[in-house]
């Protein structure tokens, strides 16, 4: 039996080598522990953030890591969250934890949610094979069941493949989150989740008092996997098709002007997709990023007008935009990895998210509440 050792911490630039043999052979990443929050000496500055969380299947474990690191730092106060798909799940679980018991409870619930999701995935057909583990940390491209399912889902719908509409994530989110308590405590932390109306193509933003397990499942309903979610006679698919995530609800909600976007869908990729799967995945990524990029253009337009004195600053808010992503690292994974429930892979993404969040705090904490740390034109134009 192979000896298990801890995967060494990597610097941001080194993570691009995650598929190199020395890294692939590093043994399993251990389940994350929850260390005590760092104690600041003397009076500390607490800064408020609103968080916008993208969706991306199993890659949402990266966002889990970002949230865990932010919640560990008692200089950061999370004022509001909005999420789509996996981002909606992360946002809902984090908000429920903050309401129930503050930062420690939010971190505990996030860990429990992802562990339960991984454990449920062990009973499913989509698993990385030994060859997958040998050549990649998270892809399942050599799994015959993945290839079979990927092909079958192109010619048969979930109404045929999954007539009972089984979705274990619904039971997991309902078990982890006290939705009744969540809806009653909307003054403690603002929460929004987003879904796409199938019939009219409009974005539906579920506000705090409307959030139920069905609302979260609607936000995460990929139409080739699950049947459309019905809520009050309307039918919904994944919110990423219209907003991944939308920013405007956080702006309209008032409060602080700092929004941190956690991105897990790469804007830039290194190579032209050449396989059918890769092409389809890139089409989805472009679609899922398009609304965010348009909103960022609007925010920059308003900022430019404020800078020129052409808008009244008492009527128009200057938004400070911050981002955390792992574009270089996540772009190495194929679409199959987004359905990979393997705990080793999820905790790898978790640790990657923690490192990226720690780097953000190190470089940009002083900018929160003062100015954007992301150059919108450079990143989104």
Binned, the helix content reads 40-55%
* DSSP, total strands: 8
Count every helix, treating DSSP H or I runs of 4 or more residues as helices: 14
Helix/strand order, N-terminal first: HEHEHHHHHHEEHEEHEHEHHH
Largest sheet data? 8 strands, mixed
The unreliable regions are: 1-32
Gross morphology:
globular
> Strand portion, in percent?
5-15%
Distance linking N and C termini? 51 Å
| Computed CA radius of gyration, to the nearest angstrom | 20 Å
Mean pLDDT: 89
Structural class: alpha/beta
Task: Indicate the topology.
Elements: H1 21-24, E1 47-53, H2 60-72, E2 76-84, H3 86-121, H4 130-135, H5 144-152, H6 158-161, H7 168-176, H8 179-184, E3 190-197, E4 203-206, H9 213-219, E5 229-231, E6 234-238, H10 248-252, E7 258-263, H11 276-307, E8 320-325, H12 327-330, H13 343-364, H14 376-380
Parallel strand pairs: 1-2, 1-7, 2-3, 7-8
Antiparallel strand pairs: 3-4, 3-6, 5-6
Helix pairs in contact: 2-3, 2-13, 3-7, 7-9
Can you give a write-up of this model?
With 381 residues, the chain is of the alpha/beta class. Helix content is 43%, strand content 13%. The protein contains 14 helices and 8 strands. Strands 1, 2, 3, 4, 5, 6, 7 and 8 form an 8-stranded mixed sheet that branches. The longest helix has 36 residues, at 86-121. It is globular and about 60 Å long. Mean pLDDT is 89; it is low at 1-32.
């Amino acid at each position: 039996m192979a000896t298990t050792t801890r995967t060494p911490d990597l610097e941001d630039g080194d993570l691009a080598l995650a598929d190199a043999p020395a890294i692939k052979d590093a043994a399993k990443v251990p389940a994350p522990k929850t260390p005590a929050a760092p104690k600041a000496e003397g009076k500390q500055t607490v800064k408020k953030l609103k968080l916008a969380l993208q969706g991306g299947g199993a890659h949402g474990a990266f966002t889990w890591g970002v949230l865990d690191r932010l919640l560990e730092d008692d200089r950061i106060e999370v004022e509001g969250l909005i999420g789509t798909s996996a981002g909606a799940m992360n946002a809902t679980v984090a908000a429920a934890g903050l309401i129930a018991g503050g930062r420690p409870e939010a971190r505990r619930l996030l860990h429990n949610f992802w562990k339960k999701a991984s454990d449920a995935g062990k009973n499913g057909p989509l698993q990385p094979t030994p060859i997958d583990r040998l050549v990649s940390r998270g892809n399942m491209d050599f799994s015959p069941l993945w290839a079979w399912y990927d092909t079958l889902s192109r010619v048969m719908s979930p109404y045929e493949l999954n007539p009972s509409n089984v979705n274990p994530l619904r039971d997991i989110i309902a078990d982890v989150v006290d939705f009744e308590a969540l809806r009653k405590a909307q003054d403690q932390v603002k929460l929004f989740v987003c879904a796409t109306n199938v019939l009219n193509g409009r974005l539906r933003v579920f506000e705090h008092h409307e959030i139920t397990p069905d609302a979260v499942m609607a936000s995460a309903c990929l139409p080739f996997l699950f049947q459309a979610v019905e809520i009050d006679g309307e039918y919904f698919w994944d919110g990423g098709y219209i907003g991944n995530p939308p920013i405007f609800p956080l702006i309209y909600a008032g409060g602080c002007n700092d929004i941190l976007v956690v991105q897990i869908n790469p804007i830039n990729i290194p190579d032209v997709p050449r396989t059918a799967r890769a092409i389809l995945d890139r089409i989805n990524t472009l679609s899922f990023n398009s609304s965010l990029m348009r909103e960022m253009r609007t925010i920059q337009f308003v900022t430019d007008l404020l800078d020129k004195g052409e808008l009244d600053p008492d009527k128009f808010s200057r938004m400070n935009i911050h981002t955390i992503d792992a574009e270089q690292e996540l772009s190495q994974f194929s679409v199959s990895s987004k359905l990979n429930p393997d705990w080793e892979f999820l905790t790898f993404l978790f640790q990657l998210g923690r490192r990226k969040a720690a780097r953000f705090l190190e470089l940009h904490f002083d900018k929160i509440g003062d100015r954007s740390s992301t150059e919108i034109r450079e990143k989104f134009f």
